[in-house]
Amino acid sequence: MVGSTHIKVCGLTKVEDGLLALELGADYLGVIRYDGSARMATEAQARLLSNSFPVGKRVCVDVAPSIKELEHHGDLGFDHFQIHFKLDVPLETIAAWSEIVGKENLWLAPHFPPDQDFPKALLPYADTFVIDTYKKGQVGGTGETGDWTGFANLMASYPDTRFILAGGLSPDNIREAVRQSGARVVDVNSGVEASPGIKDHDKLRGFFAALG
């Protein structure tokens, strides 16, 4: 945490990048296991990263995994499970994800356009929701900034739910993003990269410094 802002650094594939993030004050470290991502960690990488990071800080990120896949992510040692999905996923599937990992450990990242109401039917299944920038045909990882004022309104509408702001955050815009959105938890990925899956240490330091 830096100031009053909790920080997740996502898209990690190298242990040294995660350790620097921890040193700078990261609260969570994200490892992507979705094979459609340029930042996907192999199973061997994911296991190494999970074993190298502190308990409670390890987040596995995937897109609409099967029950078997989600159970396997747990076997790799992760603590929290961030799942991106389109709203055509049945509630029965989401309820199963919640039962497997626990409501407190499930971070749901629903894919819905900004002109559509937040899908409040999901609230019983997770304590945490990741709000990423909507882009048609893409589920998360857009690298584009979203509706920060809309995020603030969402937090005000559901004060008992934890929301994480994601999408296009960088050292250059993070202060303004937090100011406009009121976000207490932010998720950074491509904005601190040298290349997909590899962090730029100067950008990473700059991101944390901007929140200091």
Concise structural overview:
With 212 residues, the protein is an alpha/beta fold.
Structure description:
- With 212 residues, the chain is α/β, with parallel strands linked by helices.
- It has a single domain (6-211), classed as Alpha-Beta Barrel (TIM Barrel), CATH 3.20.20.70.
- 33% of the residues lie in helices and 22% in strands.
- The chain is built from seven helices and ten strands.
- The protein has helices at 15-24, 43-52, 67-75, 91-101, 148-157, 174-181, 201-211, and strands spanning 6-9, 28-32, 58-63, 80-86, 106-111, 128-131, 162-166, 185-188, 193-195, 198-199.
- The strands form two sheets. The chain has an eight-stranded parallel beta barrel with strand order 1-2-3-4-5-6-7-8, surrounded by five helices. Strands 9-10 form a two-stranded antiparallel sheet.
- Helix 2 links the parallel strand 2 (28-32) and strand 3.
- Helix 1 (15-24) packs parallel to helix 7 (201-211).
- The chain starts with 5 loop residues before the first strand and ends with a helix.
